[in-house]
Write a structure and sequence with these properties.
The complex is a heterodimer. Chain A is α/β, with parallel strands linked by helices. Helix content of chain A is about 35%, strand content about 30%. By secondary structure, chain B is an all-alpha fold. Chain B has a two-stranded antiparallel ribbon. In chain B, β1 and β2 form a beta hairpin. The chains are: A alpha/beta, B mainly alpha. Chains A and B meet through α2 and α3 of A and α1 and α5 of B.
Chain lengths: ~325, ~260
Amino acid sequence: MAEPVVSVERLSKTFRTAMGLKTVRAVRDVSFEVARGEIFGFVGPNGAGKTTTIRTLIGLIKPTTGRCTVLGAPVPSPAARARLGFLPESPYFYEYLTVRELLDLTGRLFGLDRALRRRRGGELIERVGLGEAADRPLRKLSKGMLQRAGLAQALMNDPELVILDEPMSGLDPIGRKQVRDLIIELQEAGKTVFFSTHILTDVEAICDRVAIIVAGKVDEVGPVAHVLDSSLTGTEVVVRPRAPIEPLLPATATLRHSGRDGEDEITITLGADVDVTALLVSLSQVARVVSVVPRRESLEDVFLRKAAKGDAA
Amino acid sequence: MTARIWAIMLNTFREAIRNKVLYGALFVVVAANFMAVVLGEMSLAEEARVARDVGLAGVSLFGAMTAIFLGVTLLYGEIQKKTIHVILAKPIRRWEFVIGKYAGMGLTLTLLVVAFAAALAAMLWFEGLPFDAATAKAVVLGWCEVLTVAAIAIFFSSFSTPFLSGIFTFGLFFIGRSYADLSYAASKAKEPVLQTIAEIALWLVPDLHTFAISGGEVAGKHVTVHGDFVGWGYVAAAAGYGAAVIAVLLLLAVLIFQRRDFL
C-alpha cells in the first residue's frame, strides 16, 4: 500500500470515571490503515469504540497508547486538519448561526478569502439541498437538515480526506441515499472517505474496505468482499433429476422438493465444507443443474455474530 | 493565526450580542441611571455625587456581573454542547481558540462599558454636570476590572461547570474587591503562620481594589472621583497590572485546555 491517508497503530484509550476510581477501556490495541481514494467503513455496535477512535484521529482525544497519523502527519496536526473535513456524530453547531454564517465561520477557520467563502458556501448549500433554509438559524432546522449543514461544513475546505461519524444518522431513506451518492461523488473526485456507521446496507453498497470494531477491538479489516468471502455459509444447488441423486450427496446435505412445469425440482443445501465443483460434475450425470448459488452471510450477519462474540468475551 | 483568532472572536461576539441577557444588563443600567437622576433631585445638592456613584457602579458592578455570566459558560458551554468538536477539527490550535473566545468576550464587554459610560454621560449632561477627567479615569479603571473578572471567569470555565465557575468567580471578585482590607488584616495578624497563609492567599487573589479606588487611599492620600482622584499614570499602572493578571489567567486556562479530552 502507498502511504496511507489514515494510519492507526496499536491505539488504546482508557478513560477514568469522574471520581477517578474506575477505568474504562474504550479502545484496545486498534490498528488499521485507510488508503488514498478509498471509501472505508468503520462498523461496530454502539459503544464499540468507533467515536473514540475518530475523535482521536481528529485530535479531540489523546491516546493512552499507540500512534495515529492523518495525511502523513502525527495527530494532532493543524496542517493535516487543514486538509480534512469532519462531520461529528449528531453534530452540534452554534444554534444562533444560520447555515450561511456557519459556512462562513468554517471558511474563516480554514483561512479562505471572502470571495471563496461566499462562492463555496453557496455551492455547498445547494449541493446538500439547503437552499431554502440557508438563512434560517440552525436551531430551527430539523435533525436531517442539521446533518446536511454538517456535511456542507465538512466539505468547505475541499478536503482530501473526509471523516464522517455516523453520517446517515437521523436521515430518512431519501436523505441516506443523498449522503451515499455524495460519498460516491467524493470518491470519484479523488477524495478519501472514512466513515463510521451501523447501517450495514450502506457499507455493503459503497465501501471498498471495512473495519469491524467490537468491544474496543478491531475484529476484522479488509475489502467488503473479503470479509464476506470468509463467511461463506454454504451453497444452494437446484437440480431437475433424471435419476436418484441422494447417493451422490454428502450426509449433511438437506433437500427440498418442489415441482415446476410437471418436473420434480430439488433444492439441495450444502455446507461450506463441501467440494461443490466435484459434486456438480457427479450431479450433472444424473440431473440437469438449474442453478448454483453460494450462500454467504450478509455483513449484518457477520456484524451481529461478532457483536455477540464481543458481548460474550 | 490571527485570522483564526479573529474568526473565533467575531463568532463569540455574535453569540453574545444575540444573547438577551446582555440587553437585560443594559436596560438595568440605563434604568439605574434614570433612578439616579430622580434620587439626585431628592438629595440636597448631591446630584453630582449620586449621578457619578450610580453611573460608575453600573459600569463596575453590572459590567463585572455580565462578565461572570458570559465568562462562566464560555469554554465549558462549548464542551458541554459539543460545539467544540466541529471547531477543533479545523486547523486551529487550542490556545488560539481560548484567546479568540476571550477576545470576543472582551470586545462585547468593552462595547457594554462604552454603552454604560454613554448612559452615565447622558445622565451627567441631563444634570448639567461635566463628564470630567476623574469620571473618565474611573470608567477606564472599571473597564480594566471587567476584563480582569472576565479572565477569572474563563479560567474557571476551562475546568469547571458554569454553576461552580460562577461561585468561584464571584467569590474571587468579592475577595479581590476587599483586597486592601485583607492586606491590612494580614499585616496585623499576630500568628506568623496565619500571616504567611494570608500573604500566600493575597498572592493568589487578584487585587481588584486597584480598579475601584475611589474612596480609598493611594500612597497615603485619600482619593475620590468627586474630588482629588488618581492621575493617568496610576490608571496606566493599574491597566498594566490587569493585563498581567489576564495574561496569567489565560495562560493557565490554555494549559488546562491543552490537556483536556473532548468526549
